[in-house]
Amino acid sequence: MSDPASSNPTPSDPAASSSAAPAAAARTPQPGAPQPAGAKPAVILISSIVARGGVGTRVMTFTLERLGHRVWQVPTIFLPWHPGHGRATRIVPPDDAFAAALADLARAPWLAEVGAVISGYLGSAAQAEAVAGLVAALKAANPAALYVCDPVVGDEGGLYVPEATATAVRDVLLPIADVATPNVFELGWATGRTITTPDEAANAARALGPARVLATSAPAMMKGALATIFATPDSAYLAEHPRVEGAPNGVGDLICAMLTDALLSGAGAEAALTRAASTTYEMVVRSVKAGADELVYHAAQEAIVSPAARVQVRRLATASPRRVARPLTGG
Ligand SMILES: Nc1ncnc2c1ncn2[C@@H]1O[C@H](COP(=O)(O)OP(=O)(O)OP(=O)(O)O)[C@@H](O)[C@H]1O
Ligand SMILES: [Mg+2]
């Protein structure tokens, strides 16, 4: 394992001792058993897995585990590397097997330990229905649980998933999401709007549907800068920092994981945005400085816990508050 967070077992870590099996069995949470004191909620993470690189579940699992969450990892597709590095084999689980596995998770006796589901890149349109079923089961077990939908369907060049998959994300998943984290292309595509200013991005975020929307890579106020806008029913905040040439992929995944942790921790909108954007910006800068073609989240992992960078955040006055039918859940 190259994961430094798991490479220094403490003497009390049963996985490090030869008597691991009985100790691990004793620790297995029983249905309805209380969580360990101070434990953060588990997160079900549904997205891609690459062999080399840091996109999708790789950076998100590391980030969430580094912050103290247990992660239930559900791969939607296996790829040797990010498609941006060149063509390679794609292995997508059969739709019926994927649906069956998610149905198993939906009836898992430990569902009450889960505080959030995050969905990201999907391998097929049919996977959306399976994700929706799991979200419904989680909400039934824990009404305060969050569903965070990262509608990973495209970027500046257009859609990079089949249109049927993008449509399923828009029509099946976004309507049931508590939180969405589209990039500005995805926000424009899903709302049918043209976005050229921060206010247009904030208004589109409010029109998307979910109560809380993080719009990434949005138009900024300053030249040469990028904005990340967090719109909630009663506020909209904009974080801004310089655009860095050569940023690796995976930043959208990282910021989604950071935002989810902040919301699960009870942070308010401004604090959640500040922390998520500061960590992401610092990770971009450190990856580019290292000359890396992937995020260097292992080497720069302290930026996940306490970023040294602090992006500028301001409240947007122009975006009008809107009413939502659904109550806010989960902080
Ligand atoms: N070139 C860049 N320079 C500095 N920060 C960046 C850059 N690109 C992205 N970021 C930061 O990362 C955040 C998320 O990035 P982005 O909008 O590209 O996500 P995404 O498109 O969902 O993910 P990805 O591009 O990894 O597929 C942005 O809001 C911004 O804060
Ligand atoms: Mg992007």
Layout of secondary structure:
Blueprint: H1 20-27, E1 42-50, H2 57-66, E2 71-79, H3 95-106, E3 114-119, H4 127-141, E4 146-149, E5 154-155, E6 158-159, H5 163-173, E7 179-180, H6 184-191, H7 198-208, E8 212-219, E9 225-232, E10 235-242, H8 251-264, H9 269-289, H10 302-305, E11 312-315
Parallel strand pairs: 1-2, 1-3, 3-4, 4-7, 7-8
Antiparallel strand pairs: 5-6, 8-9, 9-10, 10-11
Helix pairs in contact: 2-8, 3-4, 4-5, 6-7, 8-9
Bound molecules: adenosine-5'-triphosphate (ATP) and magnesium ion.
Residues 155, 183, 217, 252 line the site of magnesium ion (MG).
Spatially, the strands of the biggest sheet line up as 2-1-3-4-7-8-9-10-11
User: What share of residues are in beta strands?
Assistant: 15-25%
The description of the largest β-sheet is: 9 strands, mixed
Task: Give the cofactors and ligands.
Answer: adenosine-5'-triphosphate, magnesium ion
Descriptive labels:
single chain, 331 residues, alpha/beta, UDP-N-acetylmuramoyl-L-alanine:D-glutamate ligase, nine-stranded mixed sheet, two-stranded antiparallel sheet, 34% helix, disordered N terminus, disordered C terminus, binds adenosine-5'-triphosphate, binds magnesium ion, pyridoxal kinase activity, pyridoxal kinase, Ribokinase-like
What does this structure look like?
This protein has 331 residues and is an alpha/beta fold. The chain has a single domain (39-315), classed as 3-Layer(aba) Sandwich (UDP-N-acetylmuramoyl-L-alanine:D-glutamate ligase), CATH 3.40.1190. It has ten helices and eleven strands. It has helices at residues 20-27, 57-66, 95-106, 127-141, 163-173, 184-191, 198-208, 251-264, 269-289, 302-305; strands at residues 42-50, 71-79, 114-119, 146-149, 154-155, 158-159, 179-180, 212-219, 225-232, 235-242, 312-315. It has a nine-stranded mixed β-sheet with strand order 2-1-3-4-7-8-9-10-11, sandwiched between helices. It starts with 19 loop residues before the first helix and ends in a 16-residue tail after the last strand. Bound molecules: adenosine-5'-triphosphate (ATP) and magnesium ion. Magnesium ion binds at residues 155, 183, 217, 252.
